[in-house]
Amino acid sequence: MKNHSQRHHHRAPGPRHSGADAVIASLHAQGVEVIFGMVGGQIMPVYDALHRDGKLRHIIVGHEQGGAHMAEGFARATGKAGVVMTTSGPGATNLVTGLADAMMDSTPVVAITGQVPSHLLGNDAFQEADMRGITMPITKHNYQLTSPDQVASVFAEAFHIAVSGRPGPVLIDLPKDVTVAQTEVASALGPRLAGGRGAVAKGHPMQIERALQLIKNCRQPVILAGGGVIHAEASAELKALAEYLDIPVTSTLMGLGNFPGDHRLSLGMPGMHGTGYANLALYNSDVLICVGCRLDDRVTGQLESFAPQAKLVHIDVDASEISKCLPAAVPIVGDAKPVLAALLTGAQAWESRPDFGAWHKVMATWRQKYPMGYRAKDGVILPQQAVQEISAVMGEEDIVVTGVGQHQMFTAQYYTFRRPRTLITSGGLGTMGFGLPAAIGAKVARPERRVVCIDGDGSFLMNVQELCTAVRYRIPVVVAVLKNCNLGMVRQWQHMFFEQRHSQSDLACPPYDQVAKAFGALGRRVERPEDLSPSLRWAFQAAEAQQLPVVLDIMVDPEEAVLPMVPAGEPNINFIPCRVEER
Question: By CB count within 10 A, which of 34, 238, 305, 364 is most buried?
């Protein structure tokens, strides 16, 4: 955070532009093609410049929080910075949840906010809010400009910060007097930074060699791969290393897709709702190679019982994450792509590879004893079944977006992710209402791919107004609402740990197929298992044919719980297993 000091470049006098014109020129210079936002009083000069320019695509959002999530969806689908713009006061403060979400999940977003004129700052002017102070803890960096001459250099720097190293959100606060004043600096000189990650840290060779020695001499290794692998575009390197050394891989929620979910070495997701065999493998490992993962509590459970015998090789581009939760035997500060490549090169130089055959036999017994699965019920759609049906009709490159709740975990467990950037979900902050707007952002970014939002009825309602956005701009996303008429995850916890006292978790949600039609979208109610597959196929065909969003209101069993589950505070090996069909 800083009040950006004025920067002067040696230049001949040139034509003068307003600060607002410089904003638009700077967005062009950074390769921006689309902005999500909402106009208002203090940002109006920039919107006027946007109109006069006529070349940038702008999408009016129903609510500024939705705009922030759209920018996140765009960023997660592309790796480029998503852009959201709004006015001062409530417009700007409505971005806060989205910025916090982006910060927790390392998503590159540039937020542009209007602000009251500089001479009114601190005077409680109409629609004034201290966005620098408010967003200090939830942005990677933020700025408040004092001169239009700063616009070009600040925008170039902001986009670079957002996408480089560990990505994250950056906020630029623009007092109105800055946007209307004149400047000769229309846009910054130098390379476009929005689509690139800049220089990357390769990891110290000595630490890489130390890691190789641990791996060479271990017997029960596991790779724990997080979202950092996806940010670093290192999925190919991860797969090559795992296959060459025959090491099993478990991918966190944010990392799903960084390793093929149907690969023989995949253990699925670890943690509170992870597979039993992933948690057992981590517990019994003797070397844990953690790459691009911050080891949060939903992954580790009780820390001291997470991987008690393992020597930790921790690879992360953010040095502050290493040894934050667990001490690293070998800390490697570096970008996942070159570090994994260096580990593979080092291993290929060995005269012989270690034999982990006995380790794989042990894990095979765990897979048999604690399989993923569920008990079907006649005439009732189970949420796991719905996710599997969606997985069956989607292509490997198609994109799944979720809200937050039971449906999110069912998606992580029963959808087969094979490619990076095919799952977009709110992990660290757990933001209900994320799904629909993030799906819109993803579809805007990747119009050639099918995009489905798997949501819960409570989560969907929180930003349902963005159906209007999808209809207005003919954005053909498909929303599959797994409707159990409850705040499902809350109800599950109340049922299991609060003696079945379902306090304020029962919902009386509207018929979402009819809500969709009222917005001008398409909708269908699905009540029987046999109707699930044909309804999904209709939804994707109708969405593309009519270029409209489609909402499937899918009635699922409200009694179904997300299993496996590790009770809060317990060791991960104390999981409650799935209730599978009798054999």
Answer: 238
